[in-house]
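User: Quick sanity check before I run a bigger batch. Here is a single chain. Can you write out its predicted 3D structure?
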Amino acid sequence: MVQHFPSKKLKGESSFKKVPLYNEFGDCIDYRTSGETAYRDRLNSLITLYRSMKDDRVIGFQIKGVTALLRRLGCNVLKIVTAGTKADNSIPLIAVLFCAIQESKEKAPLKKLQELAPLAHKIPLNQKIPYKSAA
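Assistant: Done. Predicted structure follows.
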């Protein structure tokens, strides 16, 4: 089997952290629970799962259209902010994930939702998406 990614870790400390990362240009959030190599598996129009290359288990997800989802949840969002930037409000990541499951135009397959459930259950309630409110 051809390997497209390094199978051995580089020397030094791992820089992996279980935090949601916001991409301003894609208006999406990436959240992973492991730094291992993964492939993408579309759940619905708003959520893509990250699956382990080793054993296919769900190790993370990407949520698209985050600003619209936060507004749908009643947040008066001006801008989602990144780490180190002062925010005047925040919302739990799990709430954004559930909203993305509900708001997608197509239904997610039950089997994939069941595979996402253990990961969603482990997301700490203090994992929040910070944002600045519109005036």
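The chain has three helices and eight strands.

User: Great, the batch can go ahead then.
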